[in-house]
Amino acid sequence: AQSVTQPDIHITVSEGASLELRCNYSYGATPYLFWYVQSPGQGLQLLLKYFSGDTLVQGIKGFEAEFKRSQSSFNLRKPSVHWSDAAEYFCAVGLTTSGTYKYIFGTGTRLKVLA
Amino acid sequence: KAGVTQTPRYLIKTRGQQVTLSCSPISGHRSVSWYQQTPGQGLQFLFEYFSETQRNKGNFPGRFSGRQFSNSRSEMNVSTLELGDSALYLCASSYNRRTSTDTQYFGPGTRLTVL
User: Long-range contacts made by residues B49-53, C-beta under 8 angstroms, separation at least 24?
Assistant: First the structure.
């Protein structure tokens, strides 16, 4: 069955430190990959997406993600975290199954930033 | 271009009542999807509408229903509310969710509390 795994439920980093959030997927083909961020009480904001081409994708707010086919991963990175990055981050895949296109979301990683 | 809007933002109901939530998609978007987000279950897909027709449906009881109007605005209805229906209900719109490269954009959500 198709699935998305975000193995880290919580991550705490200090402001200015680098960040990597992990995302692994299970799917027979290459899905379309997304990262969203959700601030408390808010909806999801699209950070970046990967459909094809260059496997390193740049997004908003200084985030980037790298698609690694061999590892079925799409990890999100940021070189220097700001306090305003504290939020919950969701990885999602878009895939076609039985002729239907659908999104599958990971369970999210909650990021805490220490001053 | 205005984003996805959802009304109301907050709602308090009692068990047994029914509720209607509204979603206005981004101009030009024809697909509207609804999700339920709870701390225990994460993001769960409810249903998707495209051109006034329900195209996909998640695993929710029949108490959850929706519809889409000719201007692509969508409503979801929950009848006979239960305590477990307390959640953040998110609406997402996209141009045409049938294509694999489609991207969903989310609204701020409606926070429903059932007492």
Answer: B49/B74, B50/B96, B50/B97, B50/B98
